[in-house]
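Lines hold sequence, tokenised fold; shown next:
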Amino acid sequence: MPSANFLIGVDLGGTNVRAGLLLGDSLVQVDARPIRGRGSKEEVFDDLRASIDAVMRPGVRSIGIGVPSLVDAATGTILDTTNIPSWKEVALRTWLESTYKLPVRIDNDANCFALGERAFGHGRHCDNFVALIIGTRLGAGIISNGRLHSGTTCGAGEFGMIPYRDSIVEKYASGQFFKAHGRDGAELSAAADRGDASARQLFAEYGRHLAHAISLILYALAPQKVILGGSVSRSWRHFGESLRETLAGFAYPTVQRALQIELSRLEYPAVLGAAKLGVS
């Protein structure tokens, strides 16, 4: 086994962290553990470091990390991390490079998801696509002309923050929509599987809202594909039909008909993409 071609990718969330050891096209080891998301800067860093340590070995070339945050790419500073209140203006790259004596790259978690799809998933042969993470938030990573478009603070593609109805798109096109109706997404999906009419109706309404979000993406970027990931995407069977019916009314039929919507098949796309930050 080659000893100098390992890459480490990390997907840091508000409640969990996943670190993976990549060799070629294979994840040879993954560590997943909870973090103290409400803890101090140092406590969160200790949890992050413990996960990295679990997959570290001789021959690692670089570490890439996806974070739910805006990032100063020039300095590797975390600016404002979603769901980790203590992480404001955190010099994460400096911290990690001094710890591991390795190059470290940091980007937004949705951008890492897009990179993972570009390298290993539905985006391998597609130069223009948007990867949407649909969970408690709505995140988007953009691949344009074959390259990741991160923006000046790694925050390009924040379509969920666009004003919509009485709030923003994210409130209607993520898991927040179901929470606002007092329902858990997984429970609601199981109810829809059993034929529950109210559950199916709620999913149909959700599909129409997500179609609005995708319409915004089509107007802005006209991608070849939209790739869906995250927990809500696993209920596609319940909202896909209403989404497509709504998209049929898009103002530019040629763009709408050319669009491919695909569900991610990767188990750890953001980990894979984060690992590729070190070589992208």
The mean pLDDT is 94. The two ends are 23 Å apart (CA to CA). The longest strand covers residues 26-34. The chain has two domains: 6-112+269-277, 125-263.
